[in-house]
């Protein structure tokens, strides 16, 4: 139980064409000081390992610390019910799913069980799908707990494990049986949804107790014990999307109708960003674009909130972002890249704040699809629970 490191002897780093650090078969050939040699590209960011190298397992020791918890706000009765269930699962050492609607306050509901685990001398891991979501977790955890929070994502620490660690899955590839309690946030999101290697990695770093947290679980995640939370912490219904036949006039009308509020327009792909940006600029609007390649997404978030402007975004912003009183439009909502889960998450960006609990959500379409109807039906069903 520990960390795989490159050493002078031990197990060959690559055996039978398989990397023993990340179990990937994605090996290539390059010239090293031993001659032509295979190396692993999948875990290259952890340091190159090739067939010439050996791996040893180093035991990770963490000084045991207790922590105090300062809750940022008092949990609502429904949130308290979920927090109690998480404590029960921990006592029983059971894996479970928190199926909570977008904006339900899932992060804060986990704080009591994190406190319990840490004060029993056990390690906690929060796995996030993306760096920006991980940063948001760290900020909230640091305000609530007195123990240091270890950052194991791009720009964070890679050589230390604390009592509470926040990480993205790729930076866990060289760890084995380290964490007693593993929380997987947005467990259906990219890249989790498409990468079996990452799931194998997550299961290897834990010791058997996992909690999946999402508003849109996959079918296999719903096979474990589940606790539902169908109400946001402020008690208001989720905004129900309306279907609008797409045209340039309808899009600009939506933007003008909410001229005094932030507006977030989702598009299917990066080329669509420039296409619709030109449409809006020709109509006299100023807007920004956000995609996976946008380095300063936080700056765009602040700009949207402060200027009440318009941001065109790919699905990179379907999760992990909150803007007060934002109005949401999904352009070309029939596009094959927009799944039902994705549409639900995009709609969930609206109405997240208690002082602005409502908002308009429009699914603009050129043709109607089953996925649009299914997303709207799921939101209506959550509101009726």
Please name the defining characteristics of this protein.
7-stranded parallel sheet, alpha/beta, 21 strands, 6-stranded parallel sheet, 10 helices
Instruction: Please indicate the percent range of residues in DSSP E strands (runs of 2 or more).
Output: 15-25%
Number of helices: 10
- Rg of Cα set: 23 Å
Order of strands across the main sheet = 10-11-9-13-14-8-15
Integer average pLDDT: 88
Question: Could you give a short account of the major beta sheet?
Answer: 7 strands, parallel
Termini gap: 44 Å
Any overview of this molecule?
- Helices cover 29% and strands 24% of the residues.
- It has helices at 77-92, 106-109, 111-119, 131-144, 196-205, 248-257, 270-282, 297-307, 340-347, 370-384, and strands at 2-7, 11-12, 14-15, 18-19, 27-32, 35-40, 54-59, 96-100, 124-128, 149-152, 164-168, 175-176, 181-185, 210-214, 225-229, 242-245, 263-266, 287-290, 310-313, 327-330, 361-365.
- Strand 5 and strand 6 (35-40) form a beta hairpin.
């Amino acid at each position: 139980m520990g960390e795989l490191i490159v050493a002078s002897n031990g197990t060959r780093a690559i055996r039978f064409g398989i990397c023993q650090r990340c179990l990937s078969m994605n090996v290539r050939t390059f010239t090293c000081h031993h001659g032509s040699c295979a190396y692993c590209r999948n875990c290259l960011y952890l340091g190159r390992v090739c067939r010439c190298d050996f791996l040893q397992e180093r035991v990770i020791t963490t000084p045991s610390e207790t922590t105090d918890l300062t809750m940022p706000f008092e949990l609502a009765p429904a949130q308290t019910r979920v927090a109690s269930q998480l404590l029960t699962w921990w006592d029983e050492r059971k894996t479970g799913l928190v199926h909570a609607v977008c904006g339900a306050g899932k992060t804060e509901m986990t704080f009591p069980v994190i406190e319990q685990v840490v004060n029993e001398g056990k390690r906690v891991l929060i796995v996030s799908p993306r760096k920006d979501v991980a940063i948001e977790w760290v900020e909230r955890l640091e305000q609530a707990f007195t123990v240091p929070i270890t950052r194991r994502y791009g720009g964070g620490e890679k050589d230390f494990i604390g009592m509470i660690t926040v990480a993205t899955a790729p930076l866990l590839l060289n760890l084995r049986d380290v964490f007693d309690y593993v929380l997987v946030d947005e467990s259906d999101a990219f890249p989790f949804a498409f990468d079996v290697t990452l799931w194998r990695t997550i299961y290897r770093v834990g010791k058997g107790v996992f909690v999946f947290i999402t508003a849109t679980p996959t079918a296999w995640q719903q096979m474990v014990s589940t606790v539902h939370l169908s109400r946001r912490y402020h008690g208001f219904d989720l905004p129900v999307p309306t279907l609008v036949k797409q045209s340039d006039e309808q899009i600009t009308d939506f933007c003008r109708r909410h001229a005094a509020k932030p507006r977030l327009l989702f598009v299917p792909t990066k080329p669509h960003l420039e296409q619709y940006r030109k449409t809006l600029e020709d109509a006299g609007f100023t807007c920004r674009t956000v995609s996976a390649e946008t380095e300063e997404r936080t700056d765009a978030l602040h700009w949207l909130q402060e200027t009440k402007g318009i941001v065109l975004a790919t699905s990179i912003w379907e999760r992990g972002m909150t803007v007060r009183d934002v109005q949401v439009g999904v352009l070309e909502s029939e596009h094959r890249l927009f799944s039902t889960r994705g549409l639900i998450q995009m709609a969930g960006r609206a109405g997240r704040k208690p002082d602005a609990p409502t908002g308009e959500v429009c699914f603009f379409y050129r043709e109607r699809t089953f996925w649009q109807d299914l997303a709207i039906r799921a939101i209506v069903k959550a509101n009726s629970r």
